[in-house]
Each structure stands twice: as structure tokens, then as C-alpha cells.
Fold each of these.
Amino acid sequence: MARHLDSEAVHLFTRTPGLDAETVECVVTVPTFKRPGQLLETLRSLAAQETRRRFAAIVIENETRECAGAKAAAPLIEAGAPCGLVILAHQRGNCAAYNAGWETALRTFPDFRHLLVIDDDEVAPPSWLETMCLAARRLEADIVGGPQEPVFADGGRNSLKNHPVFRPPYARTGPVPALYSSGNLLLGRHVLEAMERPFLDLAFNFMGGGDSDFLSRAAARGFRLAWCAEAPVRETVPPRRLEPDWIRARSLRNGVISTLVERKKRAGERLGGARVVAKSLALLALSPLRGLRRLAATGSLSAAMYPVYVGLGRVLAEFGYANEQYREPDKN
């Protein structure tokens, strides 16, 4: 039986018996939606972490009718493999699920130092959590991102690993000016305590990009960002995401998100909106040249078209275009 938490939209499904919340140093949030089998792989990889840090997982079930993920995760969580809790986030959407998990972490674990994020289609190596925490200390970073290495389900499209849609934004460990994804992320507790609520803007709920916007706002507040190349997670890429129309839609969406995030960033500037439009038009105008350079370097027409679609997406965003790929997750 689910038990009520502080928010009407969030309920506790189950937790590890005897979990000592005050001793937890790290919290790992795992949002899930209709991927019970993959979620189990994610949780088993967390249970296998090689670290002396006491950590707990929060599984955030965002499909609360059948609760397939919550039901699949419950035996592992109740057995303490890994320790933690399973919650039901009744408000649908990517951003709503993340917000529910992060708020629950703050309410439940009073002394944790680091919050990490892994998605339910990702698997972490045993060194992942420890490597991310050490990178935060060594680089004096408030937020650390890591690679999401694609594992293609059909095994035959490894050439797409270098496509901009799938390739990590950085290759080397160190401070970085920006981060774009929460799929492999570490946040200091002090970051969450300082940022405005909701953490992820619900305007991005079914489009994606709420994480990119959050990270942009965190950087603008002065939090230090870093990249840890030594802490990858493996992300399963289903055959659907290898089809040209999905890659094209994701490329357009990335352009839309880029405009929306920059528009929010420049909201208080004089002529900020005009500058965003000018940049979008310039990027679209230059995109064929950039595409030709990419074609010469990679030999891939799909990769060459990426800057064109991003530029087009940036301009279309000015006319209200929004590609909500998460609106129908079964097709995403």
C-alpha cells in the first residue's frame, strides 16, 4: 500500500526496512517509466557499486496506473540491494519525476552530501559512484557530468556512436562551461538547497531539456561545473532511436531547447530576445557550411545534417514549435 508523503502528487510505495536515513552520504535518483526489465538492470548495477560511502537509491515511478517499475523494484529495495525507497510521482512528465525525486531526497535524507542521477535505461560500472564523488572533490566542482555511452540494441549501428545526438559533449575530465544532460550527473546538496523550485521547469516536461535549463541556471548562479570522463554509464539505445525520422526529430528538438534555454537566460537583458533571434538566424545560415565540413570529416550524411536541423529547430522555436517527444514515450 502506497503511503502519503509531504506532497499530494508523491506517495511512498515501499522502502528498505530499518533504513537509517541519517547515515546516508549519497542519494541516487532513478526515474522510471514503463521499463521494468531495464530498471532491474540499473538497480543491480547500483547494488554492485564498490564504495565505502553509504548511499541510498530513490526509484521514481512515473506510470502510476500499472506501477510496473515500482513492482519490479520493490523486492530489490526491500532486500537492501540497493537500500532506498520507491515512490510514486503521480504528475506525469520527465521534469515532474525528477522534481519529485530530488525533493524526496532533501526531505528524507538530512545529511547527504551528493545526489547522483541515473536513468532507467542506463547501467553503471562498479566504480561509478565513487569516481563521480572523487571527481567532485578533486575538481572542486558543485556539479559533475559524465558520459552516456550508447549501446545499440541491434548491435549493428556502432557507426552512430559519433553522431552528435549520441556523442558525449566532452572527451576529457576537467572544468567545463556547460552541461546539458541529467542522465549521468552529480549535484551537491547545497546546489539543490540554493536553486529555486521547481528545480526543473515543467514547461519542458514532455519535450526534454528541463535538465539543460536547470544546469544553465545553476551555472549562471556561479556553481562550478565539471566533466568526469572516467565515470561513464552505458545507455541502451532501442532500434526505434536509430531510425532517420527519430534522429531528425531529436536534432530539431535540440535546436528548440537551445533557443528556449537561451531565451530564459537572456530574459532580463536589454534586447535579449532580439539577440536570441539573431543568433538563431546566423546559426541556420551557417549550418550548410558546418554540415559540409562534418560530411568531409565523417562521411556521414546524417551527422552532416545535424547542424542544419539544430539551426532550423532554433528558428522554429520562435514560432512556437515544440517537439514533445516524451508525450508518447512508447514511440520515443
Amino acid sequence: MSLKDLAVVTGGAGFIGSHMVDLLLDEGFRVHVVDDFSGGHRNNLAHHGGNTDLEVFDQDIRSLPSGSPIFSGARYVFHFAGIGDIVPSIERPLDYMDINVQGTVRVLECARHAGVEKFVYASSSSCYGLAATPTREDHPINPQYPYALSKYQGEQAVFHWRQVYGLPANAVCIFNAYGPRVRTTGAYGAVFGVFFKQKLAGKPFTVVGDGTQSRDFIYVTDVARAFLAAARTPLSGERFNVGAGNPRTVNELVDLLGGPVVYVPKRPGEPDCTFADISRIRAALGWEPQVDFRQGVQRMMQHIDHWKDAPLWDPDSIAEATKSWFSCLGADRQGGRQ
């Protein structure tokens, strides 16, 4: 039996989770990955083939028994498993509440029964809603769609387990993560997957609105380092924002990628700017983002062929895919936002 510390990563075959696995193995941990591969991909872990410190369990988090041996002896649990995207959450809210909330409770129970040293939850900046910027951790919560609500309720469960059961836990509130292995298939969503496929196909970039909206893009390896720092700190019961603290416009991204543009309608419920106030994580954990935006985009461009099988979106297919978005979140809905 290895004397190395064990860490469990749920959703460890996904985008951010697989980079968490990379970091943990580099730091000398044994790692158990729990993933049902409904969103993650085995090839995200393929470069670790033959590494005896990594064990992968093909399992839905909702079926985990409280005393699951996967968690036995674990020092840390990093919880990334769940489902994302705005449009599917509007169309299938029950799935989001089931997986992102009840699934989180299952993982919490596993961590509690295993007596882990720290549980770190992947929260989302979408919980803040249409937030004032820069956004601090004490900003009011105002989810605009079921995905955001499910992530916040998952976070509430995490801190409730800390309060009631004494489970040491922190939440890391991720802003706009990007980098290698960002999702390439499925619902219309992440801008990088959309734009990279369009560039490969020689098609115009579909820019929402006028492209002046800005996002606090944070490179995925910086996100993984933040999670490890949130596990290693003696602090518990904290939410830490993780972003670059330096929003960049979609037009800047287009300029870096290079190519023609076509504009599609601005969508309700989306902020004009996401901007993380990262002063808390800097002061408490000594964490700093290391990869700047230009460098991060260039790294991704070196592997642009990764997106060759991604869906190719155009204005018509985007309009069809976002019908429910406009229907449910439109500002003219009774009882809706102003």
C-alpha cells in the first residue's frame, strides 16, 4: 500500500477535473477519479496510462453509498461532478436539481463517513447573477437560470454539512475557466469550443451582441492550483472567487484568433461583464493567476485540432438552440427581471 495521501476527484475526467488530477499526481498524491463519462472523456486522462497512483471508477455520483470504499482513507475530496450549460438547465431542471444538488449530497455523505480533512466544492460565478463588478464573495446571490440555482443549492448543502456534521469544507467560485480539454461536444455553450470549430471550418465567429461584453477568463491550471490551495489551508467555511481579476472582451478574443465575424442577438440573463474580486484568495491563500489571457489562448491554438469534431454553430442553429432561453428568460416575461 502506497504511503502517499489519497485525493478523490469527482468529475475527474471532465475539463477542470482532469487538470485537477494532473496537478495532484504531480504533487505526489494517489488519486481516485469518480466519473460516469456522461460529460467527461477517458482521453482526458489517457496521458496517465499505466500510472498506478491513479484509479478511475465509472460511477454515477447519485449511486454512491455513504460508506463507499472509493473514499476510504482520502485526505481531500474535490467535487467537480455535475452538469452545466444554461439552455439544457432551462429545458431539464429536474435533472439539474437531481445531479447537481442531490448528487452533491451523496458525495458529502461519502466524505463525511470517510472523515476527510477537507472537502472542496466547485461553485460557479453564475450564482451571483447580474452582479455588480468587481464581484466580491459577499455579493447577494441571484441565480438567473436553473443551472445557477442548482450550483448554489449544492454549495448551501456543502456548508450545511460543515455546520451540522463538522465536515471541513470550502467552496471555490469559478468565473470563466478556459484551456485545453474545454468541452467540444453537446449543447451550445462555451465560447472557445464554438469559436475554435468555426475557425477550423473557415466560418465567421458568431459574436453575441456587439462583442463588447467582457468575461473574467481564468486559465484552467490556475483554477486547479486554487482548489489545491483551498484544500491545504486550515481555513474552513470559506468561499473563494477564482478569476483573473482582469476581464477581457469577446472582441479581444476574436482579434487574437483572427477571422471574420457575424453578430447574433444579445441574450437575457447574461451579464455584460463578469469580474472577480480575487482579493480574498490572494490574502488568505497566497494564490495568484499565472497564465495571462494572450498566453492562454496561444497555448490552446497550438492544439486547435482538438476541436475538429466539435459541433459547427451558425446564427440559424444558435437561434434554434436558444429558443427556450429567450422564451423563459426574456425581460418582458411576467414576474421577470427588469
